[in-house]
Fold this protein.
Amino acid sequence: MKLFEHEAKDIFREFKMPTPPGGVAKTPKEAKKRAEEIGRPVVVKAQVLSGKRGKAGGVKFADTPDEAESLTAQILEMRINDLPVEAVLVEEKLNIAQEIYAGITIDRNRRQYVVIGSAAGGMSIEELAEESPEKIIKKNVDPFLGFQAYEAQEMAVAMGFEGKDILKLASFFLKLWKIVEKYDVELTEINPLILTEEGEFLAADARLNIDNNALYRHQDLIRELERKPHEQNDRERLATEEGMAYVELDGNIACICNGAGLTMATLDAVELYGGKASTFLDLGGGADAKRVERGVEIALMYPKVKAILVNIMAGITRCDEVAKGLISAREDGDITVPLVVRMVGTNEEEGQKMLNDAGIPFLETMEEAAKKVVEITQEAA
Ligand code: GDP
Ligand code: MN
């Protein structure tokens, strides 16, 4: 479960972490009031469950309460990274001397938490990892000992801080660790953690994702937040109702497969040939024609999708049923983008023949199919 920035900051404050003064507003009038209370220039930030709001125009600065009011009206009209904005956070605008990154997430390879810090915050950690990996400092957490104060200080030193700053910065890492422990956090990030010209450290942004599998231990928090634990868009909700695993990505090729492993492998194959997947859709075991058709329908509701790659290894699932579903979807006019199919296993020949008769391209291997679908999307672009 992802928390909004303002919710995450409430938790930060519960642990006495310094954050800029301010509060949430749901209307321009409320934002004006907030800005008046602050009594100084403010930053107005869209509250959506997505990063990179800054780049998308969801973070704006106002010198006066009136300006905060009109900027809030603008921001509330926006959609940020495809999400509607229902509230803004109005906070005192800080004078930035330095933007720092601090975060904790799970290192799945080592099966440990990893604490991450960088003196070059502001941009996303993924971009930083590509451009200047040497600027990222990491420490794995021993699950028996937890994250220790001296380790937090070592991080601050390795990030280039000196004197009193070491203890100030270390305390952010230690507090993040306490939060991770208390709330079963999967990912938490302060980016930027701002060092002001006045020499103070403050968490200017906050990201906090709680492990869905641990939500049953945090019912009080969920009640307090007064919202549904899973904030889903329509497509995600429909897929969940159908019992399909569905994840949206940034590319343009929808991968519809059966089994999570095969779906992941298909995504990798698409990437290998230079394409980008838009959709991870695992139909699950034993999908019949109706389910296949429904999967296609849901996948196509996502505007980014420019082609579909169906990759099926039929066991309990039958290739003729899959073919039937695809053909029916096409006849209903549901399939509005190119479709490439690869399927093997039970009733393979019947399925193939049905697709051939219907004129739907069919490829023998996953590699060929991935290559083909990438070619099609590149030609179209
Ligand atoms: P994100 O783009 O969704 O990660 O939103 P952030 O909260 O990180 O804001 C984006 C950028 O806006 C930051 O990296 C800062 O450069 C800038 N920013 C955010 N808060 C402040 C602030 O209080 N003062 C100033 N001067 N800049 C800010
Ligand atoms: Mn940020």
Q: What stands out?
A: The longest helix spans residues 164-183. The CA atoms of residues 29 and 75 lie 13 Å apart. The chain has three domains: 21-92, 96-225, 234-376. The chain has 13 helices and 17 strands.
